[in-house]
Design brief:
By secondary structure, the protein is mainly α. The chain contains 22 helices and four strands. Helix content is 66%, strand content 3%.
Length: 592
């Protein structure tokens, strides 16, 4: 018995050490990313003279998210000409940082931010990062990662944008700047162990955003935007961390997660900007102002995944009509949006011939373009949901019959339907209580309505719609809580400050205990320095027209297979330049 106990203790000790080592690597990488993104985003804030983000916590949060978007788009643009190796990614990041701190105002602001760091703030950051790392240094099991996510990242890291890549595997035609963001961190040396590093990063900054806003609701200067973030996060963060579907997506490179959090950030930014009073002279003089921020974030979100199109639509209207209407703002909004989306369009044309693949809109006929049949099939599989429930009897295929089939198809669809009804009721309550001083709340109604409508018309999946579904219930609860609890919480914090400090210690101890439990969990063991490798799919060696590739056996996926990996490459596909191999891309055989 004693021997068995000693062996178990020894195994738990090794598990703890291995998990802790893996988490230290993630925390180190996330800290570097926060520094880089904060530097880039602060420069953007100063360029736009966004003085409405005047509180330190707000300014830090929005600067990090702006940095994430700018860095993602910059890396996607770089992939058009260079592979996103660690060295290339490092040069891009360093160049953006140096360009940012070249501004004396940005340098001074960053220096001032460093000077206010305290041991308490650093400790809170480390505890938060440790908890997120404990969640994300697990085995990746999300099916889409094995299907194409990790494959797309490997293609970007090794070759950049490859002509005709969608001919090899139709899903590899999906363009996402999130894969470009992750590519430099997924070098061969890591052996497919760090694919969750990007999603862990956005989850961490979402947790930090919650903590910043949570601390503010105990002051007499709390705003509706603070309460909105707190309520939204209280609903969202535990769900992402514990739900069977979302927790699996968290530990993957899936672009669904950054879209979920960017939806919150765009809505939060609109609330802050709307409650800020701008001088009439500034309205006329500044075309690029704080109202540009939701537009930049939304355009960046679209480059991550097209499900963010409603964000861009509402943010564009908000930018144009948020102040006194003039044609210069229309022109500037259109030009800025096109510039930010241009890398995505270019990447799509290179890989599939379609700028917004899988949509066939504006597709061009190039030697490496997908056939019309293949493009139509991809579109039908991704956003033509009514075809998924078609009945052999045409008279049954009414919209009501199709919606009923969708409703009964999954429990989460039923949850979606209930939350949509709740959102409608909340929108009525918010609209009736709104006035000219809180017009930002009306913009959030428009944002939620456009997002829910768009996804119900295209791809009504719960994981796509979650961000839009939470907006109005969270806003309605935030309005009520601020009105009823704001003063009470402030008085409690003022009168019982010492007890709050003890409570902080209790919470910290509880988090440490939770992290320890996660560390000891055998199901989430990792290797000595890094998380576990991706699974190894069962593969077959195949060849067509001189293209040697591996193909998953039935029931298996590509996962960490060598490139190229595809289920079946059609006979009409050949190497674009056989002497250069797969890095030169692929074309259709009947084309020159």
């Amino acid at each position: 018995m004693r021997l068995i106990l000693e062996l178990q203790i020894g195994q738990y000790s090794r598990t703890f050490t291995h998990r802790l080592s893996a988490m230290i690597y993630f925390i180190f990488a996330w800290t570097l990313l926060i520094i880089a993104c904060c530097s880039i985003g602060t420069a953007v804030l100063n360029l736009l003279q966004a003085d409405c983000f005047d509180r330190v916590g707000d300014r830090l949060t929005i600067s990090v998210w702006l940095g994430v978007v700018v860095l993602s788009i910059s890396l996607l643009a770089t992939s058009l000409v260079l592979p996103l190796s660690p060295s290339v990614g490092g040069i891009v990041i360093l160049s953006l940082i140096l360009g940012s701190i070249a501004s004396k105002k940005t340098w001074n602001e960053l220096f001032a931010l460093i000077s206010i760091l305290s041991p308490q703030i650093i400790f809170a950051y480390l505890i938060s990062a440790l908890g997120v790392a404990a969640l994300t240094t697990r085995q990746v099991t999300w099916i889409d990662t094995g299907l194409y996510h990790y494959g797309a990242i490997k293609w970007l890291a090794k070759f950049g944008a490859v002509p005709g890549l969608a001919l090899v595997h139709s899903n590899l035609g999906f363009t996402s700047s999130w894969f470009a963001f992750a590519a430099p961190w997924n070098a061969d040396i890591f052996d497919s162990r760090v694919s969750a590093i990007a999603n862990g990063f956005v989850f961490l900054i979402a947790v930090l955003h919650f903590l910043i806003c949570f601390s503010k609701i105990f002051t007499n200067k709390s705003q509706i935007s603070d309460w909105f973030v707190v309520i939204y996060s209280v609903i969202n963060l535990p769900f992402v961390g514990t739900n069977n579907l979302m927790s699996v997506i968290l530990v993957s490179p899936s672009p669904d997660l950054p879209i979920l959090f960017l939806t919150l950030v765009v809505a939060w930014a609109i609330l802050i900007i709307s409650q800020h009073k701008t001088l009439p002279l500034q309205e006329v003089k500044n075309i690029l102002d704080a109202k540009t921020i939701p537009l930049i974030l939304s355009a960046g979100a679209v480059t991550i995944k097209p499900t963010a199109l409603p964000l861009l639509f509402i943010s564009g209207i908000f930018y144009i009509f948020g102040m006194e209407f003039n044609y210069r703002r229309i022109l500037m909004g259109a030009v800025l949006s096109v510039l930010l989306l241009l890398p995505m369009f270019s990447f799509g044309i290179i890989t599939s011939g379609c700028p917004i693949y899988p949509s066939s809109f504006l597709c061009v006929d190039l030697p490496w373009s997908l056939t019309a049949k293949a493009a139509k099939g991809a579109a039908k599989a991704t956003h033509d949901w009514t075809s998924w429930y078609q009945s052999p009897e045409p008279e049954k295929n009414s919209i009501f019959w199709l919606l009923w089939q969708w409703f009964n198809d999954a429990r989460l669809h039923q949850v979606m339907a209930v939350v949509i009804v709740i959102s409608i009721l909340c929108s009525i309550q918010i609209a009736l209580s709104s006035n000219h001083q809180n017009r930002g709340q009306l913009w959030l109604i428009a944002l939620a309505a456009s997002g829910i409508t768009f996804l119900m018309m295209t791809a009504p999946f719960f994981r796509f719609a979650l961000g839009y579904l939470i907006i109005l219930p969270a806003l309605s609860m935030a309005i009520y809580c601020r009105k009823k609890l704001g003063y009470i919480l402030h008085q409690m914090a003022h009168n019982y400050f010492k007890y709050f400090r003890k409570g902080f210690l209790v919470v910290t101890f509880s988090l440490a205990t939770l992290i320890s439990i996660l560390l000891f969990n055998k199901a989430t063991q990792s290797q000595l320095l890094l998380p576990p490798q991706l699974p190894q799919g069962e593969l077959l060696q195949k060849q067509v027209n001189g293209i040697s590739y591996v193909s998953p056996k039935p029931g298996s996926l590509c996962w960490r297979a060598e490139l190229p990996c595809a289920f079946e490459i059609e006979n009409y596909v050949k190497l674009r330049q056989p002497e250069r191999g797969i890095q030169a891309g692929f074309v259709r055989k009947n084309e020159n």
